[in-house]
User: Fold this.
Amino acid sequence: MAKLLEVEGLQVRYGGIEAVRGLSFSAEEGRIETIIGANGAGKSSALLAISGIVRKAGGSIRFRGEDITHMRADRIVRLGLVQVPEGRAILSPLTVAENLELGAWTRSDAAGVRAELERVYGLFPRLSERRAQLAGSLSGGEQQMLAIGRALMASPKLLLLDEPSMGLAPMLVSLIFSTIAGIAASGTSVLLVEQNARAALKIADRGLVLSHGAASIEGTSEELLANPAVVEAFLGKV
Assistant:
């Protein structure tokens, strides 16, 4: 399969703290790739750097063959790389429908936007039921659905998800991961950062373990699920 995203030697620093240290990996079209790791491993910093939100201290990033290393975040979105941030970052005073409409701000194809909106409502019927409700009044699970739906409104080629299961009840975690798998199956590639390693690896094609800002273990999901070091550090006993 063709490489959709190529990250080479990525470095991110906050003052004297090196959050990401020479990270290299690639993501292929039509797949779910996951990055797992402990708190503070550099997972979110890596995604923010890829999305153009934080400045890179070194390395290069190519998306669909184009160098986006120093590109503005809004231009990166227009190319088809869209992130759902940790903590969801929904606009609480706006309605569900208004949040979703803002997700399509880079698009000018009205018919396509309408079709995408119906697709999102089909994926998340709860959002359809609550389209006139203020986003801030939604439950945590519904807010995560809204954050994902808003990102889909931009019609991404690659969807970056940062800790989508954070703070959710187990039943909702299962629903969110099932939906992510469905999104990938429909043609949108996914790069998933997640502390819930078992859930992430169950739906991912490949995975990477990030430790102290650098890749420590890479492989297929099956390989990582069977790796004693990964089991001991992240999975434990079933």
